[in-house]
Amino acid sequence: MSKPLRPGDPQQLGEYELLERLGEGGMGSVFLARRPDGRLVAVKVIRPEFAYEDEFRARFRSEVNRARQVPPFCTAEVLDADPEHPTPFLVVEYVDGPSLAEVVQEQGPLTAGNLHSVAIGVATAIAAIHGAGVIHRDLKPRNVLFSLGTPKVIDFGIARALEVTSQHTRTDQMVGTVAYMAPERFDSDSRTTGPAADVFAWGAVVTYAGTGRTPFAADSPAATAARILTQPPELSGLPAPLRDLVALTLAKDPVERPTAHELLDMLLAAGPQETMTLAQRPELRHAAEAVQHSRRHSAGDRQPRRRTRTLTDVPRPRRRRRLATLIAGGAAATVLSLLGMHYLTSGSTPDTTAVAQLSVAPPAPRQVRGPSVIDPLDRPGQWQSVTDDSSGSCVFTADGLRMRTGESSEHQCPGPEDTFAGDQTIAADVTVVDPGSCALVWFRYTGRSGYLLSACPGLVRMDLVDDNDEVTLTRVVTQEFRPGARHRLRIDLRGQVATVTIGDAPVFQAPVTDKSLVAGKVVFGVSSDPEQGRGTVLFAGAEIRSL
């Protein structure tokens, strides 16, 4: 709710005429303003005490440059900024709608399609934000606004950019709201906090949206922080399978959480009952698919898997050693000290208002489609050549992409970065050239985890790969795949079943039931038997299509 300008408030900033106050926080005030062309915008003005600190101004300047690169997918678009003004300010799209906190406080927890659309919208926003190299650091229900029913995340314009996490921030500064802060945010050196903290906040926001309470709610901010550090989340009331996905995002260890892009992939690949709400929200669907397909990962958004996750794995309390040190002994005093700094710098409080119930009419179902890749593999395109004979080579020829192992017995060729979710088909013409060689196709491949099809003369098998661990799902001895002959190799993924076909002959079906591997890249490669020397395989006519 807007309020009149106060005495002493500026009435003009640059070309912007300030009209009303929209709110304020620890770092500044937000005003409703009008541009010369009449468009209404929101202007965030930094507090004077921060503006005259060279350190803060430098950080603000760096972060504004990053924020302007965030695409406007479920985010309030950054329109302008003046870091050099006596009171630096940021101009963003004005979202004329209530916040998620206001909706829940006034109408009660969201249900059915509304809850899932909020989960997708906020995940889309943080994936877009992370793709530009920015961390939000204060994701909460009051920073999720509704524009014509579509959620938009705001207030990321002064988030700390990934590339400036150390030189501009003191250890006694905190930005965030306790109920939505990840365990690592309470570490004695929280400057290394990465994008995984926003994924944790997503889980807390969705819990609040679906239940009216935060997952670690307690009687005080200090008690809430202690629960975040030591206790499992309280997720009763959230519908499955969303509850299981939220549990993944609230893992104590940031490495155990999915990235924002992985999170979005899993949301979009849910069953029809979960994704059907997108049929009546085309703007949300288009934004989610655009972010999903762009895959603009920053380095901080990539993280290795420690194990194969499933959505039914509710994370156990796991903490880094420094977190365990923090909460040992005098935890209450330490947390209270951190919280004191937090309120001095952020000026925000947890959302704790009681709520009622909201009913939602069921929308029509729709399946979300993904990208398609078609490449003859006779020249550089979606795939690229590699000529390092020691590690392995990928060379284009008139007959296709010739892949050869190097000093190791396995080699992957660099290909498309697109992520495919849900039902899909993968096909290529494959020829095994050297004895002892196998054609390899990884799919739903993320980090070091995914499914692997190995097509070797006389034997075809499918494995579930988690880092260096492999579990064979199915293996079939077959004469359909012969050395020196060109074969059309095809994998059809429908639901939780993968059907492998060579030519026109189905070879086997294998289960693909790991719920953490519902989306990922498709990678082609070659392996060889070390006793028979290097291996060579020819790939041509690649097709990857979403069904």
Tell me what you see in this structure.
The protein has helices at 48-51, 54-67, 100-107, 112-131, 196-211, 221-230, 242-249, 260-268, 272-275, 282-294, 321-327, 331-346, and strands spanning 12-13, 16-24, 28-34, 40-46, 78-82, 89-93, 144-147, 150-153, 373-375, 392-397, 400-405, 410-413, 420-421, 424-432, 437-446, 449-456, 459-466, 469-477, 486-494, 497-502, 505-511, 519-528, 536-546. The chain is an alpha+beta fold and 547 residues long. It folds into two domains: 98-303 and 313-346, Transferase(Phosphotransferase) domain 1 (Transferase(Phosphotransferase), domain 1, Orthogonal Bundle), CATH 1.10.510; 373-546, Jelly Rolls. The strands form four sheets. Strands 9, 10, 11, 14, 19, 20, 21 and 23 form an eight-stranded antiparallel sheet that branches. Strands 12, 13, 15, 16, 17, 18 and 22 form a seven-stranded antiparallel sheet that branches. A six-stranded antiparallel sheet has the order 1-2-3-4-6-5. A hairpin with a 2-residue loop joins β10 (392-397) and β11 (400-405). The radius of gyration is 26 Å and the shape is elongated.
